[in-house]
Fold this sequence. Notes:
Layout: E1 2-3, E2 10-12, E3 15-17, H1 31-39, E4 44-48, H2 52-60, E5 65-68, H3 72-75, H4 87-103, E6 109-113, H5 123-135, E7 140-142, H6 149-158, E8 163-168, H7 174-177, H8 187-203, E9 207-211, H9 215-224, E10 229-233, E11 241-244, H10 246-249, H11 271-284, H12 290-293
Parallel strand pairs: 4-5, 4-11, 5-6, 6-7, 7-8, 8-9, 9-10, 10-11
Antiparallel strand pairs: 1-2, 2-3
Helix pairs in contact: 2-4, 5-6, 6-8
This protein binds 3-methyl-2-oxobutanoic acid.
Amino acid sequence: MNSTPDSVSVTTSYGTLPPASPPATRKPVSLPRLQEMHARGEKIAMLTAYDATFAAVADAAGVDCILVGDSLGMVCQGLNSTVGVTLEAMRYHVESVVRGVRRIQGTTWVIGDLPYGSYHESREQAMRSSAVLMQAGAHMVKLEGGGWTSETVRFLVERGIPVCGHLGLTPQTVHALGGYRVQGRTGESAATLRRHALELQEAGATLLVLEMVPAALSAELTQALPRCATIGIGAGSGTAGQVLVMHDMLGVNLGKMARFVHDFMADAGSVRGAIEAYVRAVKDGRFPIDDQHAW
Ligand code: KIV
């Protein structure tokens, strides 16, 4: 590898990585910074990435957070669901993403997804699995579900691990949910979602992904959670931030595009341009549009 002296851009055997964001203008994203953004109403732009190069491009394009999601099972490994993703696979991809971000002296907050079966047995198992992802370079871990998970979240947070929750459509339990469908539509399921969200905030979760939750309910939850920033995917425009799977927003998808996805590549000349457009649209509140991308 041959890098320029001031590390403005980096030439590797597989191409030139984008210029690093000037440290003077972009400070590293930290937990207090995410909390400040939330408090002053600046939308948080999150995107998934699974490898070094795309992570570096996403960082240079200005995303606040990269989620190394277990969606990599479907996107990278060709699985039918995320259920088959292992902790070892997550460790490998977190390490790759973190290397990409570090190589360009990036600023992005990196979240590692705890895969199915890696945190369900006990709080101790969750701690061991989280340590694997944190030691691979993640700044935060994400886990799915409500109710029983709040005890686990508290255990991790007390031990210095920032945690992102995930409610609504939780893909690791897709079989129990009966498919990829909108959650929280009935009075009873909306009440359960509200209770689980408040419990996660109380346990110390500082981010909360809301997936395929009706826009009105997500907006209400967002207002009810001053200490936990909601990040929507198919949850409308009223959340504190947004996340998309990178391949989806680049229009690279083997199946049918979900209603909540917008193809930002269609009007962009490059991957970096598409991600910059996504970040701008999230920050300006132009994406998502409730009657197009939500329920
Ligand atoms: O695994 C993932 O990429 C996710 C996002 C879709 C939120 O959980």
